[in-house]
Amino acid sequence: MLNTQEYINKNKNKFLEELIKLLEISSVSAAVKYKDDVLKCANKVAEYLTSSGAENVEILSTKGFPVVYGEKIIDSNLPTILVYGHYDVQPADPLELWNSPPFEPIIKKTEIHPEGAIFARGAADDKGQFYMHIKAFEAMNASNELPCNVKFLIEGEEEIGSVNLKDFLIENKEKLASDIILISDTEMISKEQPSISVGLRGLSYIEVCVEGAKMDLHSGVYGGAVPNPIQILSKIINSLIDEKGRITIPNFYDKVIDLTPEERTELNKAPFEIDEFKNSIEIKDVIGEIGYTVIEKTGIRPSLDINGIWGGYTGEGAKTVLPAKAYAKISVRLVPNQSDEEITKLFIDYIYSLAPKSVKVTCTPHHGGKPYLMGIDNIGFKAAKKALSHTFKNEALPVRGGGSIPIVALFEEILESKSILIGFGLNSDVIHSPN
Ligand code: BES
Ligand code: MN
Ligand code: MN
Fold first, then answer.
1. Half-sphere exposure of 117 (CA within 13 A, CB side)
2. Which residue's C-alpha comes closest to atom 4 of ligand 1?
3. Which ligand places an atom closest to the C-alpha of 424?
4. pLDDT-derived band at 151, boundaries 50, 70, 90
């Protein structure tokens, strides 16, 4: 019988081919037109779980896209690990910016990956990452080296906020019971430097609509006396962050847990080159809250971004229009111990308070998510660090992930298990972007 490593070496090409098939499915959860593909992807994941040796594989329905479940219980006295991942992906738009079609994976050699890297939507977020665990399981199971029970929970709505997964957790609490949850859906510092995310930021997301006159008007006939929704929206947006880079929503920072100077020093020990950072995304300078480093600004401090803004005339040439409406999508990243529900309420109240009486302002909340935090004394963290030391020369470092995985806080709340976030993505994967 082959041992785990031998099994992996022998099956490497098969594993790669299978992963490519998974990446060919356009499982975009956000757009209705991909509904069938998302379901097709759930089937594929179930097929892979079964062929990898998982038992009781099921495609379980939720109010939204289904959850794929599978397990291997070797001994009820042994610890149980629940592996979580998501088979849905972000929309691939704008398609014209892709060098090769997003759902036709290709392998290309790059500077960072001279051995070749797969280019496809979802390669890192999250298909490649959860697939890795299925194959690790397959190899350990086939070689009789599995040291614990394993359960898989692969969902299809992470990229749209996992809104239906909460109820699923409540209804399937027993089935999903575990000692620790293992998630690979974050990043590592570099190919040589593994890291484990001990925190994730939360999210509050709103859409704002500003309405002026009942129709678009001639800007010469009406301009000067009639409120311009785009200008008013711009002014509102402009007042959301002050000159010190702080978010101005009243009481916004009340519940933020400040790190001790020691914790901040520790956090900033992670290798980070500001020029490399700037060059990698071609920005001339960084911005943000005064008194914090980039690592802190993107990991332990909240941030606010306008995700989209539209209104008026943006077509060819000049149209002298005084628009009737303006819109913006605005998201706020939250840190422990901020509550997304509380912040969304404070945020909306604040926007209304900023609205002049000349216009009608409407705010609509979108899905949000709670932040997450764990200690490095956690047994799962220690085990993960030890596991990574088998492969990497450098010791794994604890980091704070700037992105959000909304279900992680609910895993703790409902399933009462902590999540170990071992990311294998790299910044250079530019997840959610083209290519
Ligand atoms: N895998 C990401 C989250 C992530 C990426 C965490 C990199 C840390 C580092 C996840 O799929 C994601 O994109 N989450 C969304 C939230 C969701 C509610 C749309 C996000 O962070 O914007
Ligand atoms: Mn993800
Ligand atoms: Mn994502």
1. 19
2. 403
3. 1
4. very high
